[in-house]
Amino acid sequence: MPLLADPLDVALPAGHPLADAPGLRLADLAAEPWIYGGSGPWSEITTAACEAAGFVPEQAHSAAGWTAILAMVEAGMGIALVPRMASAERRGGGGAGGVGGVVMRVLSADQPRRHVVAAVRGGAEEGPAVSRVLTALRRAAAERETVQQN
Asked: Taking Cα atoms as reference points, which of 18, 36, 43 lies closest to residue 28?
């Protein structure tokens, strides 16, 4: 069951030439070195978003967690697509901006998104425990979308 669409923003090292560029698009970053997971869903999400923008990203480094990916970006090792939910701490709660040595940029024209879903075994959603969890997930997703819109 779909819960929410989480926008992907680009993490750039502070001082990057495109950190303050108006109207930044994913295609503007085609020549950059990229940091993302070596395999699995995050690799697929990053490559699919870049391919939709007309290029294949050059993977400079691989990391499994957001803390490591953002530390690599901060060290100037490359750039990364980061879910807005994962980067909220670096933003101080939302919106574009940055903290420390990372600048989070919203991609203006071609905003890629990851889709967050809840998967349960067929018929399990009727059980009281699963039903309560799904209700809580729907509520949290609705609250998150309200925060992102403001």
From this structure: 18
Side chain identity at 116, as an amino acid letter?
Answer: V
Is the Cα dihedral 117, 137, 93, 74 positive or negative?
negative
CA distances from 93 to 1, 96, 131, 147 (A): 27, 10, 29, 9
Quote the pTM value: 0.77
DSSP 110: S
Over residues 40-51, the pLDDT tens digits come to: 787 888 999 999
Coil vs helix vs strand at 115: strand
Nearest Cα to Cα of residue 49 among 23, 70, 26, 29:
26
Distance CA 67, CA 86 (A): 9
